[in-house]
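Give me the fold.
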Amino acid sequence: MWFYLSSTTWIHPMLRKQTGSLARAFARHQKSQHPKKVKAWKDALAEGADLAGMVLQNQADGHESKFINKIVQVIGEKLRHRPLSVPHIMIGMHSRVNKLNLWLQDGSNDVGILVIYGMSGIGKTTIAKSVYNSNFGRINEIEDAISSKRVLLVLNDVDHMDQLDAVLRMKNRFCSGSKIIITTRRARLLKAHQVTKVHEVETLHYKESLKLFSWHAFGQDHPIEGYIEYSQKIVDLCGGLPLALKVLGSSMYSEDSIDVWKSALEKLEAIPNGEIVNKLRVSYDSLQDDHDRKLFLHIACFFIRKDKDYIVNILDGCDFHTIVGIQNLIDRCLVSIDGTRYNMKGLS
């Protein structure tokens, strides 16, 4: 984008034809610079000459002060950040976002790193986007583009240690007071010694779950009369997982037949919803080998809420490397330990 402050300052022809003082300057550079570099400069200037411009006489009635304000406005539009898309129904998310905002605004001069972790579909990305949206407008946009300022960097779905290492190596380049938020399904990444804050995203409480399901199924924060029992049973099956509540609630929206609700519940109890399974399968597919995948299936099918020592004894006898395999499942947020018992993440 070119800007002209007077009718005599026409730059386009000079750039396009590269004549006059510009040609003489290039001739000098030919003697001291590599020919390819000079050619790249020429090509860039020629390309710039074809860009659309704004001429003072054609803008703001020829008033330079108004024209300058117009230039600032145009540049601002080019540089302005856009809010990220988040769900319009945020049941159970606001309290989590508020916790992260408190951390962002703690006044620390250090470069802080926070990791949001949890299983697929639990709301990590939604939380990170919401935190970004509520803070991106705090920094002057044009000044950000031309000077060193505190920044908020959000990295979504970091899955490998080398990705985190790359971020940590950059830490000292950020201005003091900058903040970095990382979302991940990998609990093992949290052991990096430079991570200063950890936020584990828990499943929704039952009341929050029923509200979220109801908003998507009925357009209000509670089930309508006659559908309460079926709604409660579906919510129980979701185990507090926001993704499941949204998908299943939306699938029942505008469905007013009790028989259909009953049939849908019976099907859900026998066959999991495909959209939800595909999302959750991301963590399963990311397991490093078939050994861990088979171990997960054995635990999911036969050993939910069983004593962990009992599970280890049984599966070790079946040629599983159970202890290290289960640690890999925990690392992927597929399995959790409740006291002395194993449980599948997101399932009661």
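Residues 1-11 have pLDDT under 50 and may be disordered.
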